[in-house]
Design a protein that fits this description.
single chain; alpha/beta; Rossmann fold; seven-stranded mixed sheet; four-stranded parallel sheet; about 40% helix; elongated
Length: about 325
């Protein structure tokens, strides 16, 4: 295995609060250990387009509190081709980068896995996604901040909901994962969470109307995970109008507000610990792994395990929500 003298860092896919804290931790841990550091802008697209520059300790000053990512991010169709990855690897070599730290979600880590395998190149991933849908880690960078943003927004919506007898559907992010909707519902005292994980097992809307939405309450708030499986908040609202016209429905889609904002203390601490661990993993000779956290301990998770689509939700929380919505 070749010696590592320079580490490259990139952020890829959707941005997540705490990515800057991770960039800072990777950069300064690498510099502390005598490595050079190169920042790659716009993710894999920037690697293909040769958007690479040296990072110093000053480059990452005063960023721990900032949302988004100073390295910017983008999605790259070209990187999905072998020709695109060849160009990316040629640029890696041209800049003297000996190992890569990739901060992103499942798509980003899937790309890292392919690149690492094709060129026998050491890459360590950090789980940067608000969706919390990566296996092998209890939580991901950005998830706590997004959950707090959802809580803040839903609290405000409840103020107006209490003034009207309406059924409010609030759509949150998560793609095919219901973690934000489920835990957001618990945190806000919502009457229900409609999530993709159980969409094929039960008609969640019918169950809500029949048992969860009680006429004794003057309003009900339901968190809905954005997903083709759930139909999203708009799809569910259309169903209510067709099948349960006696209910007045309002829809709020929180959208990209969930990605932004200053990261919470929990996300800053998590990102910092993981960033340091990424460099330590490379020093130890680890490769093709994601840094995860399990029971407050940092662990190394093979890419193949991290990107599996089977991270389980806590089904007990569904019963908790139902019980407390009386």
């Amino acid at each position: 295995m070749h010696a590592i003298n320079c580490i490259g860092i990139l952020t890829s896919g959707g941005d997540a609060p705490g990515m800057n804290a991770a960039i800072r931790a990777v950069t300064r841990t690498a510099l502390y250990n005598g490595f050079g550091v190169k920042g790659i802008y716009h993710g894999y697209r920037g690697l293909i387009n040769n958007e690479v520059e040296t990072l110093t300790t000053d480059s990452v000053s005063n960023i721990i509190q900032r949302g988004g990512t100073i390295l910017k991010t983008a999605r790259s169709k070209e990187f999905e081709t072998s020709e695109g990855r060849k160009t990316a690897f040629d640029n890696i070599q041209a800049h003297g980068i000996d190992a890569l730290v990739v901060i992103g979600g499942d798509g980003s880590l899937a790309g890292a896995r392919v690149l690492a395998a094709e060129y026998d190149f050491p890459i360590v991933g950090l789980p940067g996604t608000i969706d919390n849908d990566l296996s092998g880690t209890d939580t991901t960078i950005g998830y706590d901040t997004a959950l707090n943003t959802i809580t803040w927004a839903v609290d405000k919506i409840r103020d107006t909901a209490m003034s009207h007898e309406r059924l409010f559907f609030i759509e949150v992010m998560g793609r095919n994962a219901g973690f934000l909707a489920l835990n957001g519902a618990v945190a806000t005292g919502a009457e229900a969470a409609i999530i993709p994980e159980i969409a094929t097992e039960v008609d969640q809307l019918a169950e809500l109307i029949q048992s969860g939405f009680r006429k004794s309450k003057n309003s009900s708030i339901v968190l809905v995970a954005e997903s083709e499986v759930t139909g999203g908040a708009m799809g569910l609202a259309e169903r209510v109008k067709r099948e349960y016209p006696e209910y007045e429905v309002r829809v709020t889609i929180l959208g990209h507000i969930q990605r932004g904002g200053s990261p919470t203390a929990a996300d800053r601490i998590l990102a910092t610990r993981m960033g340091e661990a990424a460099v330590n993993a490379l020093i130890e000779g680890q490769r093709n792994v994601m840094v995860g956290i399990q029971d407050d301990r940092l662990v190394y998770v093979p890419f193949s395990k991290a990107i599996r689509d089977d991270k389980p939700i806590n089904r007990d929380l569904l019963q908790t929500i139902k019980m407390l919505s009386v």
